[in-house]
Predict the structure of Protein ASPARTIC PROTEASE IN GUARD CELL 2-like.
Amino acid sequence: MFASPALPIILVAMLHLTLSNIAATSYPDFQLLNAKQTLIETKRLRPLETSEYHKLPNVSESDQGNWKLKLVHRDRLSSNNTNAVHDHSRRFHARMQRDVKRVASLLLRFSGGGSHDGEAVYELNDFGSDVVSGMDQGSGEYFVRIGVGSPPRNQYMVIDSGSDIVWVQCQPCDECYRQSDPVFDPADSATYAGVSCSSSVCYRIENPGCHAGRCRYEVMYGDGSYTKGTLAFETLTFGRTVVKNVAIGCGHINRGMFIGAAGLLGLGGGSMSLVGQLGGQTGGAFSYCLVSRGTDASGSLVFGRGAMPVGAAWIPLLRNPQAPSFYYVGLSGLGVGGIRVPVSEDIFQLTELGNGGVVMDTGTAVTRFPTLAYNALRDAFIAQTANLPRASGVSIFDTCYNLSEFVSVRVPTMSFYFSGGPILTLPASNFLIPVDDVGTFCFAFAASASGLSIIGNIQQEGIQISFDGANGFVGFGPNVC
Ligand SMILES: *[C@@H]1O[C@H](CO)[C@@H](O)[C@H](O)[C@H]1NC(C)=O
Ligand SMILES: *[C@@H]1O[C@H](CO)[C@@H](O)[C@H](O)[C@H]1NC(C)=O
Ligand SMILES: *[C@@H]1O[C@H](CO)[C@@H](O)[C@H](O)[C@H]1NC(C)=O
């Protein structure tokens, strides 16, 4: 077996992974948040010009047949609205608005669109009061650029760890939203081949249809966006790596959601996601580093067994037959300042009926916990930050601080206690984030309106995260990035 879950202590820079049974005291209880520097970097954030992004090397070719793509946060992609891009507060509010929609749509998927076992049905309005208006923000947090067809046409794709299909907008467009590259035209591709209705591939997608002998697909997202079209085999190019016969949705009717990007690259746990289709070629293995906000660095997405880092702390992936796309992990508790928050382990449990549990999601920004757990976590954090001046709540956050007068502040660490022992202690910048340009920082967690917990991308930033689908493990570290 490849993964080795039993590892000794790993301590890297701000990322601290330990095994509690060895040394619960070997990670810090407090750390410094450089408030001033964070603000300076936030203000300095400069979106990439599209041409600039194109000039970045697509890939850093590495050994062992794995291939690496640059991952860019949408805030770094040039937008038509330059004012919004340069204003951190507006960017932040837009991101929270997308996040509320993302979480609402995830919860809808879990609840089958209605109430489920007495769980609260999520209302979009629950968090809506402080959120900016305008529904045209589009979703998708991280983008990669890949080539579609032969010759390859470069397109931006949203990556989504909770999705099991790869699709792009296609000509002829009955309905397409605006994207930054020309819409892919299968007539210009030598390798495009529609999937026939009788193909077994057609039955691996949800709700397949058949039209003129060709397999039709249809994906509806919880917020009302959708993509519909033809399922086809096509060649995808990742830098210099060419992958033939990937089943992709060629979407002729699309409403989005995915503004700017041509489509979506599903990295979920199901057989039709890119990871699932690569199967043998990469052994279900991929690894990513989400870029830190406020830095000009880009992140990376690497496929292949060779991408699995040596020295990561591995924890088992759990499967929920009700939601096979999602990567679940076992969480037993939370810690603040090295002290375990008083919540029952049961609150994070994935039940036999498929309720509750903890998913890792690239598309959700802010980590959500069931209300009881969130309240306990927040109260513990507040109790240990009594010396810091508070500010009123902002957007979905109820715990904020006015750090405008501080160069740096000492804050308690926040840790995830994973089932089986590993503890992931987050850098302060992953849980105390700037929400404007004047020094308001908020504790970046929120309550979930259901039993589901979601580990969001703000908390994952800067930490190398590796999925070993074949062996059923997710690894944290050892690198910061
Ligand atoms: C990126 O990939 C495209 C093809 O997908 C290629 O034409 C281009 O030269 C590559 N750019 C770099 C900098 O490698
Ligand atoms: C901005 O959007 C308008 C229409 O919405 C378009 O005509 C214009 O070309 C866009 N500008 C840039 C720089 O993308
Ligand atoms: C933050 O504190 C500074 C200095 O005490 C004050 O001038 C400023 O108004 C405060 N900001 C907010 C949003 O309360």
Remarks:
- The two ends are 27 Å apart (CA to CA).
- The domain at 10-480 is CATH 2.40.70.10 (Cathepsin D, subunit A; domain 1).
- The CA atoms of residues 30 and 412 lie 4 Å apart.
- The pocket of 2-acetamido-2-deoxy-beta-D-glucopyranose (ligand 1) is lined by residues 57-58, 147, 152, 154, 237, 239 (CB under 6 Å).
